[in-house]
Write a structure and sequence with these properties.
Serine Threonine Protein Phosphatase 5, Tetratricopeptide repeat; 9 helices
Length: 142
């Protein structure tokens, strides 16, 4: 991919300071977002997987990338894995106060179909998710 090639060629002095944070993990997150938004869940999980191993320096970015991965796994029908990752994201989000974080959780809740809500994995997930502030902030509670 062209973006990956360009990123690998940059040097410390080739970019302005405001973009110095953008690294391979950030690029993986952006690629994951794109594929998820295009409805290509398989590619979103594959290409965005590296984004959920953030360095912990930017919890907000880690939260978004992790929610995108949870969405993508849910979209692939891997609901257990999607819920597991969503719980990780909700844990990351405990210290965050952001309308955008609430929006990501709202979008995730919106992707949980009635069929998925009947699954045992969902019941376990929903019970655990209710322990997180962001989950409870969203209007569409399961």
């Amino acid at each position: 991919m062209e973006a990956e090639r360009k990123l690998s060629q940059r040097t410390a002095d080739s970019d302005p300071a405001y973009i110095a944070y953008f690294d391979e993990v950030e690029l993986a997150a952006e690629i994951g977002h794109c594929f998820r938004d295009l409805g290509r869940s398989g590619q979103a999980t594959e290409r965005g997987a590296g984004s959920i191993v953030g360095d912990g320096l930017n919890t907000r970015s880690d939260f978004f990338a992790t929610m995108v991965q949870a969405d993508a796994y849910l979209g692939q029908g891997e609901i257990g894995r999607g819920f597991e990752i969503a719980l990780n994201a909700l844990q990351l989000g405990e210290g965050l106060k952001s309308a955008r974080c609430v929006q990501y959780v709202r979008e995730f809740q919106g992707r949980i179909t009635d069929g998925v809500k009947r699954a045992a994995e969902f019941r376990v997930f929903a019970e655990q998710a209710r322990g997180f502030r962001l989950w409870l902030q969203v209007d569409e509670r399961p």
